[in-house]
């Protein structure tokens, strides 16, 4: 196996994401020998931590996965800390000095990954100084990993993109959407295009509609201030839901190159039908906000910390989305996501048309979270003295051994970046088209009458209007 040589500089090393996900992901890569002696990480943030303290934090983050303490400590010894306020220009020169020293020590061949895990408002200042202070290498590669959200609307995303472009080429920018690192999202293309049975019927002639659901049981927790400016349409729909839609709808790429795959996704996102009036929006999009649960055990969104008592922020979104392309003419894609729903799951259902009246259409269910499964629902004659039909299920779920061997989202994505594989990262144009779709909805919501919130109790299945939306298609929502 190829052992990669690289230096990671992690901005936001004292943050929540680093402690909960990133150190563990990097440790797994170390345990699996993708990185080893020729790897080092510089963690930076403002807090005055030391190398030793960072190493303690790292060891604590990975403690549940350590099976060889000495090996884990050896891993942690590759971590260095430099206190740094990203607004302070001089500090970048200190970072560069440390980087050069570590490159020499670990023989990392000048390969540098800059992982920015802090507030998006700070992305441009960092990238500008990475270039300006000579922190970008001239020997190996420079790759930039950035966290979501990429802007708050198309305008701010555009501005951010312009600022990043000054310092990094598009093919050096790895925009993270961790849903694209999930095993059964990543494998969607193989499922679709490596099976003639699916490939040949995956079209408007045979598919009645598609349902994509990202349901959460949790409320806004302590993120009320962030959520007030985001709502579910920006938090989940603009990125994860539309990304999954593009993977379900895209044409087969001409090869496995990131450019080919991303171009096909862009083609779908660029042609999402834009609702052109409030009436069309109301016909096709449902927004909701949770009230207290019927038992009163869970409070209403408006009573959450840091949330306006009159808030009109949506915690639920469901939409019938059409794609203005001949190949998908008349095939709706229903997407929905919400907080404080009565289940936590991410699923895709592809509902095929019926072969004749009175016979249910076949359905393929892809379970992405928390369980992993493919379930295919077929019609089968009931065994006995009748020729009535019943629905049977053919299913596959990975076993425990397979699940344990499966990389976690961040592990998969960081490895892909190390390997220079952009397949599962968003191209700028994907982000831009996602924003265009959501911005249009936000604009029409402003023109529409004020929503009558709350309109669903916490821990329920969501607003009644969302059921009506799918019922018009002749179906119910599938979990
Ligand atoms: N947490 C998650 O589960 C999650 C999930 C998806 C995406 N994200 C995204 O990941 C990014 C980080 O999230 P997080 O939850 O880790 O945030 P966080 O816990 O608030 O951490 C922010 C980090 O930024 C550092 N920082 C803030 N201002 C700084 C400055 N001027 N100079 C240098 N460092 C500074 C903080 O350290 P100091 O205070 O020590 O400076 C801290 O390390 C965000 O873009 C977020 O949207 C997070």
UniProtKB/TrEMBL annotation:
Cross-referenced Gene3D superfamilies, in alphabetical order?
A: Dihydrodipicolinate Reductase, domain 2, NAD(P)-binding Rossmann-like Domain
Q: What is its EC number?
A: 1.1.1.49
Query: What keywords tag this UniProt record?
Result: Carbohydrate metabolism, Glucose metabolism, NADP, Oxidoreductase
NADP as a keyword of this entry, yes or no, is yes
Catalytic machinery residues? 240
Residues bound to substrate: 178, 182, 216, 235, 339, 344
Describe the reaction catalysed, as an equation. Answer: D-glucose 6-phosphate + NADP(+) = 6-phospho-D-glucono-1,5-lactone + NADPH + H(+)
- Origin: domain of life: Bacteria
InterPro entries cross-referenced by the UniProt entry: G6P_DH, G6P_DH_C, G6P_DH_NAD-bd, NAD(P)-bd_dom_sf
Question: Among the entry's GO cellular component annotations, what is one?
Answer: cytosol
* Pathway(s) this gene product operates in, as recorded in its UniProt entry: Carbohydrate degradation; pentose phosphate pathway; D-ribulose 5-phosphate from D-glucose 6-phosphate (oxidative stage): step 1/3
Q: Which GO terms describe its molecular function?
A: glucose-6-phosphate dehydrogenase activity; NADP binding
Any idea where the Glucose-6-phosphate dehydrogenase C-terminal domain is?
Answer: 190-477
- Cite a single GO BP annotation: pentose-phosphate shunt, oxidative branch
According to the entry, every stretch annotated as the Glucose-6-phosphate dehydrogenase NAD-binding domain falls at 10-186
- Which residues does the annotation say bind NADP(+)? 46, 85-86, 148
Q: Does the keyword Oxidoreductase apply?
A: yes
- Which Pfam families does UniProt cross-reference here? G6PD_C, G6PD_N
Q: What family is it from?
A: Belongs to the glucose-6-phosphate dehydrogenase family.
Briefly state the protein's biological role.
Catalyzes the oxidation of glucose 6-phosphate to 6-phosphogluconolactone.
Q: How is this protein named in the record?
A: Glucose-6-phosphate 1-dehydrogenase
Gene label: zwf
């Amino acid at each position: 196996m190829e052992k990669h040589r690289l230096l990671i500089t992690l901005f936001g090393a004292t943050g929540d994401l680093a402690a909960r996900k990133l150190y563990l992901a990097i440790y797994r890569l170390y345990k699996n020998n993708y990185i080893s002696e020729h790897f080092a990480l510089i963690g930076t943030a403002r807090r005055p931590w030391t190398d030793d303290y960072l190493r303690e934090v790292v060891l604590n983050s990975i403690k549940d996965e350590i099976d060889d303490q000495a090996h884990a400590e050896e891993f942690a010894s590759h971590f260095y800390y430099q206190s740094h306020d990203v607004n302070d220009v001089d500090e970048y020169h200190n970072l560069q000095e440390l980087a050069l020293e570590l490159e020499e020590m670990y023989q990392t061949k000048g390969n540098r990954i800059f992982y920015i895990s802090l507030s998006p408002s700070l992305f441009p200042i960092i990238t500008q100084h990475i270039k300006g202070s000579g922190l970008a290498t001239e020997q190996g590669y420079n790759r930039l990993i950035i966290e979501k959200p990429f802007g708050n609307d198309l305008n701010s995303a555009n501005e951010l993109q312009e600022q990043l472009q000054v310092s990094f080429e598009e093919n050096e920018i790895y925009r993270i959407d961790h849903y694209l690192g999930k095993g059964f999202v990543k494998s969607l293309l193989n499922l679709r295009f490596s099976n003639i049975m699916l490939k040949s019927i995956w079209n408007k002639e045979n598919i009645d509609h598609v349902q994509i659901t990202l349901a959460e049981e949790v409320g806004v927790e302590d993120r009320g201030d962030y959520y007030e400016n985001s709502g579910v349409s920006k938090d989940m729909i603009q990125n994860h839901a539309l990304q999954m839609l593009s993977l379900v709808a895209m044409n087969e790429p001409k090869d496995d190159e990131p450019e080919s795959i991303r171009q096909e996704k862009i083609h779908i996102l660029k042609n999402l039908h834009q609702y052109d009036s409030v009436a069309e929006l109301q016909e096709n999009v449902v927004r909701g906000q949770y009230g207290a649960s019927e038992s009163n055990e869970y409070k209403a969104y408006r009573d959450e910390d840091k949330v306006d008592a009159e808030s009109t922020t949506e915690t639920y979104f469901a939409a019938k989305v059409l794609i203005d392309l001949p190949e998908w003419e008349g095939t709706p894609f229903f997407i929905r996501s919400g907080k404080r729903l009565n289940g936590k799951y991410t699923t895709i259902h592809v509902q095929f048309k019926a072969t004749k009246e009175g016979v249910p259409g076949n359905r393929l269910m892809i379970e992405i979270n928390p369980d992993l499964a493919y379930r295919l629902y077929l019609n089968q004659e009931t065994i006995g003295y009748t020729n009535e039909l019943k629905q049977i299920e053919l299913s596959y779920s990975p076993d425990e051994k397979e699940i344990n061997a499966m990389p976690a989202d961040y592990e998969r994505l960081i490895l892909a970046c190390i390997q220079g594989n952009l397949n599962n990262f968003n191209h700028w144009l994907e982000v831009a088209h996602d924003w265009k779709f959501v911005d249009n909805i936000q604009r029409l919501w402003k023109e529409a009458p004020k929503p009558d919130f709350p309109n669903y109790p916490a821990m329920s299945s969501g607003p009644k209007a969302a059921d009506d939306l799918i019922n018009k298609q002749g179906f119910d929502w599938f979990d």
